[in-house]
Write a structure and sequence with these properties.
alpha+beta; Jelly Rolls; Arc Repressor Mutant, subunit A; 2 domains; 5-stranded antiparallel sheet; 39% helix; DNA-binding; Homeodomain-like_sf
Length: 286
């Protein structure tokens, strides 16, 4: 099942809190009407979901969806964050899930939960994980909970922004994990383009770094990265150009450092890739 594209998501926080529970406290068996993040700060918990039993240690998080039986329980005394949300909703205003949570029997666990995916430009259809360890998330959960509890003006929009940041960090982690395994065969070429994007790398040079024939290298690169070596190199140059623009370097210096033949050609390629001229990008970042 697909939750939509990362570019069009309008997620909404429905409920968020930080809590503590004694050992052997259970929530469920049940189904929830939305999605839930359950992040363990201290102690240890356990999730029964999708016909699997998953331990959740401190610093780890689980994510599960609607209408599939689940049971959360603490193994030891535990401190945790719990956040309920929807991937897409017109309004950012919370809709408390409590009255739509339903009790189920253990017999209902016989059916498997669906696998959910999210669409990513370039990378395609990416599976959403049920369990993960992403340290950066611990800084976002308390900010979401503070907004939910204080209900200051505009809090629903702030929560939506924080949730979008959380989702982006999580899915970036998923992609990094996936690409680290897939990209091993072409890692020397990727490393060269990341470290020296200013160099006019040819397919032959990059293929030689990896020990492949250029035709096979190009095919392998496109299968694993979703784009050609040329397009990947351009994207790395634009990343470096953005850093230089925000660092205050002149357009002539940037074009020279990235070995463009002219400022005009650099500006043309920058706008083609980003949708903004270098000057417009610098103004937005100032």
């Amino acid at each position: 099942m697909n939750v939509g594209s990362i570019l069009t998501l309008t997620p909404t926080i429905n409920f968020a809190h930080r809590d503590r529970a004694d050992a052997h406290v259970s929530w469920g068996p049940r189904t929830i009407p939305d999605w839930q993040f359950f992040y363990v700060i201290e102690g240890e918990a356990e999730l029964l979901y999708d016909q699997k039993q998953q331990r959740i240690k401190a610093g780890e998080c689980v994510l599960f969806g609607p209408d599939s039986p689940n049971r959360l329980s603490t193994v030891t005394e535990a401190v945790f964050y719990s956040v309920h949300f929807d991937w897409c909703h017109p309004s950012p205003e919370p809709i408390h899930p409590a009255y739509r949570i339903q009790a189920v029997s253990m017999a209902d666990f016989s059916r498997a939960a669906p696998v959910y995916h999210m669409d990513f430009p370039v990378y395609g259809n990416v599976a959403i994980p049920c369990w993960f360890d992403v340290p950066e998330l611990e800084q976002i959960f308390p900010r979401i909970i503070k907004e939910y509890q204080l209900e200051q003006p505009g809090y629903a929009f702030v929560m939506r922004a924080l949730l979008m940041e959380l989702i982006a960090i999580l899915m970036r982690h998923v992609l990094d994990q996936s690409l680290s395994g897939k990209a091993s065969k072409i890692e020397p070429a990727l490393h060269a383009m990341r470290i020296h994007p200013e160099e006019p790398w040819t397919v032959e040079q990059l293929a030689d770094l990896c020990g492949y024939h250029p035709i096979h290298f190009t095919k392998l690169f496109k299968e694993e990265m979703g784009r050609t070596p040329k397009h990947y190199l351009i994207s790395e140059r634009m990343k470096r150009a953005k850093q230089m623009l925000l660092g205050g370097l002149s357009l002539s210096n940037i074009a020279e450092k990235l070995k463009y033949s002219s400022i005009h050609y650099f500006s043309h390629q920058f706008k083609k890739e980003t949708g903004l001229s270098p000057s417009e990008f610098r103004q937005q970042g100032s």
